[in-house]
Design a protein that fits this description.
Elements: E1 27-31, E2 38-42, E3 55-59, E4 61-63, E5 67-72, E6 78-88, E7 91-97, E8 107-111, E9 114-121, E10 126-133, H1 137-144, H2 161-164, E11 172-175, H3 187-195, E12 199-205, E13 230-231, H4 234-239
Parallel strand pairs: 3-12, 4-11
Antiparallel strand pairs: 1-2, 5-6, 5-8, 6-7, 7-10, 8-9, 9-10, 12-13
Length: 240
Amino acid sequence: MRLSDFQFQLPEQLIAQFPLPQRDESKLLIIDRSSGQFSDVRFRDLVDYLSPGDAIVINETKVFPARLRGRKEKSDSWIEVFLLRELHDCLWEVLVRPARKIRTGNIIEFTDNVSCQVVDNTVAGGRVVRFNCEGDFRQKVENLGEPPLPPYIKRPLQPEDRECYQTVYAKVSGAVAAPTAGLHFTLELLNLIRAKGVKIIPLVLHVGYGTFRPVGLEELSRHQMESEYFHISPEASEAV
């Protein structure tokens, strides 16, 4: 397959910039595989297309606010630090913007008692940094960080985005992006699905930066995919 096989026009006015007030009011396209018929319904109608004995697998990953903003030490340069993965205690692989301003040894300050120092360079804007902070680092990130919205959301971050860009069943912190297909479920809809005799099977897949990373190669087989952490319990595997 080639990248050009997937080129199509998507009008910007059709890309929603804000979520609907009610999650399950979003549109859902149903394809009848026996007849080939297409139907436009609402996501809440999903329960009508399920049968007792069916199963739905949900991803219980939870998005953490991975985007931090700070200043380069001894300068007025604002730097964005995007947390990708923790390599060791307080040692993180990150993306920095603008990357050209940040070199090994530079210190980025976020607050009076939270900073990081660049200890290594990787490729394409990547760095390895060591955080210095007082207290629980994860809690500091929860307070300082911003949830990373997808690049096609071109608007300022809103206070309600922390809740809206999270599934209603998110439990295990570790994703830098939401499993977006699951954003449309409500607790009420899940209860209706269970009441119909459909199994809800949880697993965990921490969505990584690869979900944002553009494909820059025409030959898709040459695109380097990012690894992601996942956990599937024996019970979930057997249920599936």
